[in-house]
UniProtKB/TrEMBL annotation, chain A:
It is found in: Cytoplasmic vesicle membrane; Golgi apparatus. SUPFAM superfamilies: SNARE-like. Residues 1-147 form the AP complex mu/sigma subunit domain. Signal peptide: none annotated. It comes from Sander lucioperca (Pike-perch). This is AP complex subunit sigma. Belongs to the adaptor complexes small subunit family. CDD domains: AP3_sigma.
UniProtKB/TrEMBL annotation, chain B:
GO terms for cellular component: AP-4 adaptor complex; endomembrane system. Belongs to the adaptor complexes large subunit family. The gene is ap4e1. SUPFAM superfamilies: ARM repeat. The keyword Protein transport applies. Residues 1025-1129 form the AP-4 complex subunit epsilon-1 C-terminal domain. It is found in: Endomembrane system. Pfam families: Adaptin_N, AP4E_app_platf. Residues 718-762, 776-806, 861-891 are annotated as: Disordered. It comes from Sander lucioperca. This is AP-4 complex subunit epsilon.
Length: 174, 1131
């Protein structure tokens, strides 16, 4: 089970927080702070696993993280997950973000936090790995995007009709 | 990939103002979220951020509650609220609006609503009930996206009691034409299974259908469920093994569509999942394991080392191979694979390699030897995690010979423990048994305490103190250990105590309070002043202060001490802290009244068990008075919470049974009576364990399985009972041994210094691992005393026993001697009739050494196998039992048992165990069960050619009363004959095992006096006899007993009814008497010799046997519980 997914930047500012196990609000913030503290101290040439912390659930849990430029992607998992498997899942997730946002950067995560959540929902559902195939994930996200486009298209139509209620008719008439 | 997130936050303000980047074009400068974020990034302090967010939250709150806000605006507001929550600011006012949005919005708005709900709320939040209808509606929607959203939110969090409402709809989705829906439905059901397993029981066959789904994605999702279910009950799914193997075979063989490839590896995550399942299925099951050997081999072969993910598969493969029933060919390949991991330059792989090694050394310690140099290198690795993993590995291979080196190494890396203090649990109690000497142990512990400090788990100081107070075999050694501790602590306090952590100060004050009297020349007043100094220090916590005051209370005596004590108690008797005030009062009064002090705080009583009346029966009168006066009966906390929860949650059963009413109708006496226990026990279900915990004040280590033995990890050996010894041979550290070790490594002499150092370290770390292997790099290993000890336990393997056998067989006159001896004993004329010292003058040719032998023999209850049933009346002579001939000890046993005194010969007795042998004297012993007493019989066999006179045998035991059957303690043993001594044993104080320590002193006609020590161990069960009672008698007795313990034990089921089977087994093994079995409950009685009853009440509860033991004797319930547990485990 994945217990939590945390994304924060090099200064520890949270960019996306998703807990799959309930923690009180202040506990969540403490977990974020401590995780950042643990992860940020580590060089780039050490291993990507951290364990033995007392953050979430104690010794059975470990942190698996990757550091991309300004962002840390941290997955907190229990012993039922494969370490290297999760490490590659993070890679898949980031590649998917890259594909969806066309050259993703921290800004995309800040301003489209909701979208990142939707993408994540297609990768991990309720703490379980749902899909590991990037093309599948992107396809699912695109289905939703199409819905968004059609809706905004419809809204625009509605809006236009509202603004110029007569023009289509006048055309027809004309 | 690192260039993916290349744009940094520093560019943010310019990006926002330019508004030209593709990512930010959508954020118009008027976007509220944009403004918020821009505002936050411009801030410099946390305080300003707080102000800004609070302002933002007020504005959101205003807008959401305004009726004019459209759903579209609401969507935007929700995202802002999510953002604020992420930063840690509560926006609870928006929760209800999130639910509303999910309810009423269009698909897009719904999506935001669901997202907000799943981020804001948790499973037990009451607002979630409002979401149930929305989810129901969306599950039935024709819009696939809405169905997906509903399934996602359901798997994220859903109220447990509402599951039945949506379960049919989710189940239905398993047949949905779209695979993504089927897949999500499977995961949602898995989530249901996790939170409420009994609710999805009926759809197990649907899971099987999902496993066989034509879409591999759905099948993969169903593996989550199977992994979980197989973990819980591997037996139930063995039939699926061939299916899993076939699936894996197909995946590995590339039968899946190319879409499933990741870096040209076919469905790696699926493979990992399958391998995990297979390892669960194949564990301890040869026939199942055999099915999977082929595919495992293929997986190993196919996984070429080219990408991270292949290593993930290989790692699982290796773990699987080492978990299932071993096959040497595969093990070899897996070992090679581990080598690849460990030697890899990639740090992640090294980490996993170490993990795999740690896992594997439990079965094959030799593997660590192959990689010893790498392990040494890893100890100095810059990555803390790698170091930690290496240490964990070292812990697994610790043994008596390498403990000093390993602990030293750990001390060097000690700061690690601040990071991962949990690790300290392993340390150092396991390792005390390996400690080379007292000084080393105390000093090591000092370092542990001062560095580990207050980060440390409280268990460690506790068990350290327990260790000190309980002591070990030898009184003298215990005294030395305590003395050394006192000395070391006094000198610490004279230094700079301000720097020591609080926990350590507490330990110090306890030890000084308890044991400083041991150091005669140390004045109590001086210790008192040192302790008083601690009180004055600014950073001393009040908890520590109360420890210090307690210590002072124990110490104060004499005039000077009194003045210090008075001064201190005056200062603290007005303290704000009530505990401190209490302690100060105690100090004040006890320091003035020494008699009282001696009674309250008896010296050296730290390990005496406290009598705690955990059932609080002395309050019964008070309680019944209160009840009579109309007070509400007591409810345990969990019940109160349940009721509270029930009162809060919606009641689904309108006229359900209300438990509290029936509860209040039963009186307090009913609650305690076992015959009517079903009323209370049904309610207090889990409380058995709780009250058990509360009942015992000391740490319980007896029931814990011993994984560590003196020689390292006790892999598959049967649990060997050991008594801790202080003297352990020091590890092979002498230079000549290291030299030998070096000579076996590839390049011995010209190695550069660091390399050589490493090799030396390696040889000292890995010493003792290779006892049977020819790859021994460490030079020869010394035979250690404990190895010898262990040998003597094995029947017939000991040289002493062998000698005895041959001697008794060779010596032809033995039968005559036996007869003679028996006659002698029967007529109760032992020494008088003995042959006068004719042979006393005969010289012994060989010289005698004077060293005192020391030898222990321990008996576990399993040793009396076969002999116990005969207690029930059918007196069979065990010695004549034909079955015992198969025993290597048989002939000797037979021979010695013929020496059993006639009045005992008809009774059942334990196996005759050799105790010790020295020169020509062999001691053996057994205990004989009689209905009303227990007799210990010691056989002294003289194998020399001369008679030995004046054999003085003295026995003593802490917990047992030992009395000689005949007053004459002096025996003599004629040449090649056996002298027999009998002792009555009665229990002074119950204990799990009793130990009788003895010393035999004797003198050959010529030579110096000799003495041999020995010890004999026997279980509590030897003293247990059935107690015949009627149910009524039982009922009245039950209420009278104040000492009790409760525990849940495992049931045995031999096809028959489990309760009956378990009780029968206990009756047979432990000599209990089953009074009555009523439905799910059984009452059992027994007595401890003589006439100390113990009553047992058993109840079937949730697949376990809830056992409640009561007795008037303290500790008896706990000790008997241990044996019940053992008996059931051994079954």
């Amino acid at each position: 089970m994945i217990k939590a997914i945390l994304i924060f930047n090099n200064h520890g500012k949270p960019r996306l927080i998703r807990f799959y196990q309930y923690f009180a609000e202040d506990m969540q913030q403490q977990i974020i702070r401590e995780t950042f503290h643990l992860v940020s101290k580590r060089d780039d040439n050490v291993c990507n696993f951290l364990e033995g912390g007392s953050l979430i659930g104690g010794s059975d849990y470990k942190l698996i993280y990757r550091h991309y430029a300004t962002l840390y992607f941290v997955f907190c998992v229990d012993s039922s997950e494969s370490e290297l498997g999760i490490l590659d899942l993070i890679q898949v997730f980031v590649e998917t973000l890259d594909k969806c946002f066309e050259n993703v950067c921290e800004l995309d995560l800040i301003f489209h936090m909701d979208k990142v959540h939707y993408i994540l929902q297609e990768v991990v559902m309720g703490g379980m790995v749902l899909e590991t195939n990037m093309n599948e994930i992107v396809a699912q996200v695109e289905v939703q995007n199409r819905m968004e486009k059609s809706e905004s298209h419809m809204e625009r139509m509605l809006l236009r009709r509202h603004l110029e209620p007569l023009s289509p008719h006048s055309h027809e008439l004309g | 990939m690192s260039d993916v997130v290349e744009k940094t936050l520093t560019a943010l303000p310019s990006l926002l103002s330019l508004d030209s980047q593709p990512g930010s074009t959508k954020l118009s400068s008027t976007s509220k979220l944009g403004t918020l974020i821009r505002g936050i990034t411009e801030l410099t302090s946390k305080h300003e951020e707080e102000k800004l967010i609070q302002h933002e939250l007020t504005s959101i709150k205003e807008q959401v509650s305004s009726p004019n806000t459209s759903m579209r605006q609401m969507k935007e507001l929700m995202v802002r609220a999510i953002y604020c929550e992420m930063l840690g600011y509560e926006a609870s006012f928006s929760y209800i609006h999130a639910i509303k949005l999910a309810q009423q919005g269009t698909a897009l708005e719904k999506r935001v609503g669901y997202l907000a709900v799943s981020l804001f709320l948790n499973e037990s939040h009451e607002l979630l009930l409002l979401l149930v209808n929305t989810v129901l509606k969306d599950l039935q929607s024709t819009n696939l996206i809405e169905v997906c959203m509903a399934l996602t939110v359901v798997s994220q969090m859903f109220p447990k009691d509402m599951i039945p409402a949506i379960l049919p709809l989710v189940e239905e989705k398993l047949n949905h034409p779209k695979e993504i829906i089927r897949r999500k439905a499977v995961l949602a059901l898995y989530k249901f299974y996790l939170i409420a397993p009994n609710q999805v029981q009926h759809i197990h066959n649907k899971f099987r259908k999902a496993l066989c789904d034509k879409d591999p994605g759905v099948m993969t999702a169903s593996l989550h469920i199977y992994l979980q279910m197989i973990q819980e009950n591997p037996e139930g799914y063995k039939d699926l093994t061939p299916s899993f193997v076939t699936i894996l075979k197909q995946v590995v063989g590339g039968k899946l569509p190319m879409d499933f490839n990741y870096h040209s590896v076919p469905a790696p995550w699926l493979q990992i999942q399958l391998l995990r399942i297979l390892s669960l299925l194949g564990k301890n099951d040869q026939s199942t394991s055999e099915i999977m050997y082929e595919v495992l081999d293929e997986s190993l072969r196919r996984a070429e080392m080219n990408h991270n993910i292949t290593y993930a598969i290989l790692y699982e493969c290796v773990k699987c191979i080492y978990t299932i029933h071993p096959k040497s060919e595969l093990l070899e390949k897996a070992a090679k694979c581990i080598g690849n991991f460990v030697l890899s330059p990639k740090i992640n792989l090294k980490y996993l390699g170490l993990k795999a090694l740690t896992y594997v050394v439990q079965q094959d310690p030799k593997l660590a030897l192959q990689h010893q140099m790498t392990i040494i290198e890893c100890l100095d690795h810059p990555d803390l995690i790698i170091k930690r993993e290496t240490l964990e590995l070292l812990f697994r291979i610790t043994n008596a010979q390498n403990v000093t080196v390993i602990v030293e190494k750990i001390m060097l890396l000690y700061y690690l423990y601040l990071v991962c203090s949990c690790f300290l649990v392993f340390f150092p109690m396991n390792h005390y048994t390996y400690a080379p000497d007292n000084e080393w142990f105390i000093e090591t512990m000092n370092t542990v305490f001062s560095v580990g400090g207050d980060m440390m788990q409280p268990d460690i100081p506790n068990s350290f103190l327990k260790l000190l107070s309980e002591g070990f075999d030898s009184v003298e050694e215990d005294r030395k250990l305590r003395l050394f501790a006192v000395d070391s602590y006094v000198s610490l306090l004279q230094g700079e105590p301000g720097k020591l952590p609080q926990r350590f100060l507490q330990v110090i004050s306890w030890v000084l309070g308890e044991y400083s009297y041991l150091r005669k020349e140390l004045e109590a007043a001086r210790v008192l002043r040192l302790l008083a100094k601690l009180l004055d220090m600014k950073n001393t916590s009040s908890e520590t202060k109360s420890w210090v005051l307690m210590a002072m209370t124990k110490l104060c005596e004499g005039r000077t001490g009194l003045s210090v004590a008075q001064e201190v108690s005056e200062t603290y008797s007005s303290s704000l802290d009530t505990v401190l005030r209490q302690r100060a009062q105690e100090l004040q009064h006890l320091s003035q009244d020494w008699e009282l002090q001696a009674r309250v705080l008896p010296r050296d009583a730290g390990h005496e068990p406290l009598e705690v009346d955990s059932s609080l029966s002395f309050l019964d009168g008070f309680v019944s008075e209160a009840l009579a006066a109309g007070a509400a009966p007591y409810k345990p906390q969990h019940q109160r919470q349940e009721e509270l929860a029930q009162a809060k949650a919606l009641s689904l059963e309108p006229y359900g049974l209300s438990l509290p009413i029936s509860m209040s109708s039963c009186s307090i006496a009913d609650r305690q009576s076992p015959t009517l226990l079903s009323i209370s026990s049904g309610l207090s279900g889990d409380s058995t364990e709780l009250s058990h915990k509360g009942g015992s004040t000391s740490l319980k280590l007896d029931g814990v399985k011993r994984v560590w033995g003196r020689e390292g990890y006790l892999a598959q050996r049967e649990p060997v009972e050991e008594s801790a010894h202080v003297e352990v041979p020091s590890p092979l550290r002498s230079p000549n041994h290291q030299g030998e070790a070096d000579s076996q490594t590839p390049t011995p002499t010209p190695t550069p210094d660091p390399e050589q150092e490493k090799q030396q370290l390696a040889s000292s770390l890995f010493v003792g691992l290779s006892s049977q292997s020819s790859v021994c790099l460490m030079g020869k290993s010394e035979p250690t005393p404990q190895r010898f000890r262990r040998k003597t336990k094995g029947p017939g393997s000991s040289s002493a026993v062998g000698e005895q056998i041959s001697n008794s067989l060779v010596s032809t006159p033995s039968t005559v001697d036996n007869l003679l001896c028996n006659n002698l004993l029967e007529s109760n004329i032992t020494s008088e009739l003995d042959v006068s010292s004719l042979e006393q003058t005969s010289q012994l040719a060989h010289g005698l050494t004077t060293a005192n032998g020391n030898c222990d023999v321990e008996l576990t209850d399993s040793d009396i196998k076969g002999s116990s049933p005969s207690l029930n009346g059918d007196n069979e002579v065990v010695a004549a039992d034909p079955g015992s001939h198969e025993d290597p000890d048989g002939p000797k046993d037979l021979c010695l048992s013929s020496h059993l005194p006639a009045e005992l010969s008809g009774l059942s007795h334990s196996e005759i165990t050799p105790l010790c042998s020295k020169q020509s004297l062999d001691l053996s012993a057994c205990h004989v069960h009689k209905d009303d007493f227990l007799v210990l019989v010691v056989f002294i066999y003289n194998s020399s050619d001369s008679d030995i006179q004046q054999i003085l045998l003295e026995l003593d035991s802490d917990e047992l009363e030992v009395s000689c059957v005949c007053d004459n303690r002096v025996q003599e043993a004629r040449s090649h004959s056996v002298a027999v001594c009998q002792y009555f044993l009665t229990v002074k104080r119950p204990s799990v095992h009793f130990k009788v320590v003895g010393i035999v002193s004797y003198q050959f006609p010529v030579g110096t006096p000799q003495s041999v020590q020995f010890s004999y161990k026997l279980p509590l069960t030897s003293f247990i006899r059935p107690l015949t009672l009627t149910t009524e008698e039982y009922g009245t007795m039950w209420l009278d007993f104040s000492h009790d313990t409760k525990q849940n034990l495992t049931l045995i089921s031999d096809g028959q009814e489990p309760l009956a089977a378990t009780l029968n087994m206990l009756e047979k093994k432990l000599q209990l008497h089953v009074v009555e079995v009523i439905g799910m409950e059984g009452i059992v009685a027994c007595q401890l010799l003589q006439d100390q009853p113990c009553l047992m009440h058993c109840r079937l509860h949730a697949g376990t046997l809830a056992v409640w033991l009561r007795s008037p004797v303290p500790d008896l319930p706990d000790c008997l519980m241990y044996h019940c547990q053992r008996a059931l485990q051994e079954h």
